[in-house]
Amino acid sequence: MPSVDRHPDERGPASQQGMRRQNLALVLGAVAARAPLSRADAAAVTGLTRAAVSSLVVELMRDGLVVELGPAPSGRVGRPGNALSLSPTGPAGLGLEVGVGQLAACVVDLSGEVRAQARIAVDNRERPAAAVLAELTGLAEGVVAEARRSGLRPVGATLAVPGLVDDGANTVVRAPNLGWSELRLPGTLLGLPLGVQNEANLGALAELWRGGALDVVHVSAEAGIGAALLVGGRLFRGARGFAGELGHVPVHPDGPACACGSHGCLEQYAGERAVLAAAGLDLPPADRIAALARHAAAGEPRVLAALEQAGTALGTALAGAVNLVDPAAVVLGGAYAELGDWLLPGMRRELAARVRVRPWSDEALSVSALGRRGPLLGAALVTIRRILEDPGAPALLGP
Ligand SMILES: [Zn+2]
Q: Is-contact 60 66, C-beta < 8 A?
């Protein structure tokens, strides 16, 4: 599978067919950004001739990517053109997620709207990977069937996992909180090409694709703590693709031993297990964060103190990242978005005290509006982005 954030400039030399593919993407991009719009407006926006746009639109309509909404006033003199829009049916993306305490699946249409979804709370830590994937497949089957009843046709699937991923080899290299290592995934699921990505990366891309900032440190946490770095709107992956292990940034070098072999890592203060221990809570594994949030909302002093300590540790570790990369925004995403009310004060205080690349502004730190849904949505959007970036790619739209 190609990289999820491949840049259009890297598609190679522009043969005539390549040029047509680029123009298909231009027109589809204009429709995606500005629908409803007429062919004349699409021509004006893309700089292509009206005749060229009309010919490209025929192809986009044939592939089920664009529909005509019927006559619409264009604000121009002369015959009103039929307004074009992204098809609410046809090609769609399937997103899948395996979390420590949950499984989820969703289907999004070309405009990125979630059209079918399912999420179940389940403890995945002690189960064989095959059993987890079998249950996930069952969940996906239901969601895909629901989407098909609405006329949608999923053409690709991406799985979000809390761990290190070699997406080129479709392999989960290490997901310690699931007990997975060197797990090679099948190339297809329900007959759809299947890719895999780290959940923090997908959460960050979901925010980006919905109009978020280009330079971002995106934190995603549950059992483990990961971060995604967006630099100029692209994922920064590191030399081997493993960048973003925020959970093992040291907060107190002499602190408690960490499963990674080091001491005083962020996870030992802000990871789910550490927070629950400090809070004196013994909660069932499934949907723990939501339960933790309920205890915090009830004002239990020990829970509030544990979250205060976690927020402080998060802020300390993040200050290092901010000083290093000077992002426009720091976003708290994933399940921990539900804990934002209690984590943010400590995070803000430490960032304000420690960030030195510029005066720290509290507005630069926010909670993801997508929250827990971010990684799943990002996973489903991977397929949609591929279609929008290269609608003429052979075999992209499936059978
Ligand atoms: Zn560690």
A: yes
75 CA distance to ligand 1 middle (Å)? 60
Q: Enumerate domains of the chain plus CATH numbers.
A: 16-86 (1.10.10.10), 91-204+375-396 (3.30.420.40), 211-369 (3.30.420.40)
Distance 276 CA to ligand 1 centre (A): 17
Q: Tens of pLDDT along 87-102?
A: 999 999 999 999 988 9
- 245 CA from centroid of ligand 1 (Å): 9
pLDDT for 246 equals 95
Dist. CA 338 → ligand 1 center (Å): 24
d(CA 272, CA 276): 6
Q: Are 355 and 24 in contact (CB under 8 A)?
A: no
Q: What is the pTM of this model?
A: 0.89
What tens digit of pLDDT does each residue of 225-253 get?
999 999 999 999 998 888 999 999 999 99
CA of 237 to the centre of ligand 1 (A): 19
Helix (H) or strand (E) holding 227: strand 225-231
- Kindly give the distance from the C-alpha atom of residue 106 to the centroid of ligand 1, in angstroms, as a whole number: 32
d(CA 73, CA 285): 56
